[in-house]
Amino acid sequence: RNGQVLNSPMAVVIQEMVACEVSGVLFTLDPVTSNPSVITITANYGLGETVVSGSVEPDTIMLRRKDNGKLVMDSVVVGTKHQRIVMQDSGGTVTEDLDENSRNESCLSRETALRLGKLAINIEKYYKSSCDIEWGILDDEIYVLQSRPVTTAAAETDNEIKHEFDAPLQCENEYYTVANVG
């Protein structure tokens, strides 16, 4: 299903909970257009639950891969984030309201966003696939919490299906067919 093996081995991972100051989700392609030259980062203060659940509108940062291999900041949209979830010393989590300054500024600096982008490219190269990565930052240290392949990138749009035969044939030995041979 969705490009993944149905009967695949499984592992159980037990990891320490990281009391992230900032966290979020990163796609090594544009999740809307599947453009592989765009890296999309969504982020909020605190634990990543607010970003993953959609309970706040996170900051959205778009990085662009240049032909020379460099990453550049393409755009920053500061979300109307109003809350964060943080760990309690006694265990569990608590939701806190953000102050006005935090609401109106990006929770990631340009440098940190570019560091995340470079790390994501290395993960993508290792797995040889576009990735959906959950990450967190504590004391300027980036923690990769989870990485999985993007499974929706190859889906054809309605427009692509509608116009799939619009291109001319490249030579006289090419033929179009929609015959079902199975």
TrEMBL record:
Residues 9-165 form the Pyruvate phosphate dikinase AMP/ATP-binding domain. Belongs to the PEP-utilizing enzyme family. InterPro entries: PEP_Utilizing_Enz (IPR051549), PPDK_AMP/ATP-bd (IPR002192). One of its GO terms (molecular function) is ATP binding. This is Probable phosphoenolpyruvate synthase. The gene is ppsA. The lineage of its organism: Eukaryota, Metazoa, Ecdysozoa, Arthropoda, Chelicerata. It comes from Nephila pilipes. Transmembrane segments: none annotated. Pfam families: PPDK_N.
